[in-house]
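fwd from M.: "can u put these together and see what the complex looks like"

so here's what she sent:
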Amino acid sequence: MKLKEIGEDRIIKELSREFSRRHRRLVKGIGDDTSVTLQAGGRHLLATTDILIEGTHFKRGWTTPYLLGRKALSISLSDVAAMGGEPLFYLVSVALPPDTEKQFLDELYRGLSDCGKEHGAVLAGGNTAKTKGAVMVATTLFGEAPAQETVYRSGAGPGDVIYVTGCIGDAALGLRLLKKHGGAALKRTAFRKPVMRQLDPSPRMSVGRSLARKRLATAMIDVSDGLVLDLKRLCEAGAVGAVIDARRVPLSAEFKRLFPAAGTTDGIRRALTGGEDYELLFSAPEKAAKKISALSSRDVPVTPIGVITRSKDVCVTFTAGRPLKISRAGFEHF
Amino acid sequence: MKLKEIGEDRIIKELSREFSRRHRRLVKGIGDDTSVTLQAGGRHLLATTDILIEGTHFKRGWTTPYLLGRKALSISLSDVAAMGGEPLFYLVSVALPPDTEKQFLDELYRGLSDCGKEHGAVLAGGNTAKTKGAVMVATTLFGEAPAQETVYRSGAGPGDVIYVTGCIGDAALGLRLLKKHGGAALKRTAFRKPVMRQLDPSPRMSVGRSLARKRLATAMIDVSDGLVLDLKRLCEAGAVGAVIDARRVPLSAEFKRLFPAAGTTDGIRRALTGGEDYELLFSAPEKAAKKISALSSRDVPVTPIGVITRSKDVCVTFTAGRPLKISRAGFEHF
């Protein structure tokens, strides 16, 4: 059987079932945003690894080495944010063709370094390797959280409100603009915001950490592969379902302006399944609503979009409460 | 300037100088076998990342997915051994073409898992990604050691004896046999030992840990890129030099039998610069000789091969104490 016929989630699930082993210090292995390991001092060590491959995750003509470095770390930071943790250190492996200009690597590391500085993460090691093929950047990030504060994907209970940070769909729109206009899209002022949301996502460290510290979120995940797909993962982990109202999912002014079908079912479908938003999707008891709205800001709004249900289904309503059929919930890695 | 014109060591050094930052919990970042971070409970967390790329580090026809998985973890384990640490957890990223058979990934993970079990390391997470290009396996391993026991590359003092575990040169011989005979070399009984030393190296966890626990080694590194090159790294880190006697460097019976030039300067040069032995190279005070020889076994001999000097040069003697000229100290990654 071929990988593309199975799909990433099932592959990971099967690998996890087959190869996960118990260890007194492994709190959470495969199947969450980061692994969680108990440090000697009682704090959770959070570790996550991500990989960006040329031709799969980026095109050299559509980005810059600097932005590539930033993104490589941001997507790992987003995973740590989704656990409610604080980032600490990161390791990087870069594979490049031997005739690559040194400047490429410098710029890439500068992107990593700047992004790390903004969020308090420090480069702790790494290596470079030669490849005849695609450029590749693999990042491993360690973070930590007090053991009692870590927020898992599981934990959502029926009646909990579902929230999402920021706006959804801009990263997918940015990708669309890059596909249509190539690298030129980077230079068009009107396209800048969605294109940068695709190339330089903002991990929501502060909201993630606050939710954890105040013990407000019952479950959390970052939106990497599409809101609907990641919501399904959160629901599956908690053995619950969800109903979300697509009209409440926040869309940016740029999305509404630049995406011709923004207000239609096609438009909302694309926003909900596009992926790479790196926003936080979480559930919280209804009684936490006031404290959660206090975390909402103009830059990073926190918006209630639905509710956790007892059924195992994830249902999206759009016009007049009618369910919106979504055949492809998000980005499948194979 | 192109990467291949600079060389990996200089690239890493420059990146380290430019991008390393201080952090109260980062004990050692770039420039050693693993990063060292202080855990909350006072133990060092050791973390290392490695990457195997098809066409650069392996050929699919020359190995099996199972052996590839084993090697991906073994080379990281060897790094933790070289710090005197114990392995704990690992993360894996695998990039594969979408039409890869699922069995390939299963076998790869089985190799990882079996190797992990043998050394007490547990899979803690990972991901898979699609690539149109080369197959790639990136491993991140965490280990730990009591803070006062961690062994660094630096620390060798003039007069210290230089030791190496196991035999040197078999992995290079194995590669030579694979280049000559292709995958068929895997099946030839006479070739099996050196070929398996290339495809399935044995990290020296037990010797590494014992040296650390008993505080015998003043400096340590694993032999990944060639004994001479890695000895140069150890000397540079400690601002010392070394003289080693090539005739004392242990060669296996297979090396002597299968490598026609084994007894010549060409033969010894290849053994000393071939790389991928994943043996431990360390220095220790002369007075520790007895305790160190107690760690030596038939399977994993520990052999004194030279001495640390005050000069900054690394000198290899062969016939009658005459220096052996070595133009290429080991494997350069670019």
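replying to her w this: Chain A touches chain B through 78 residues (CB under 8 Å).
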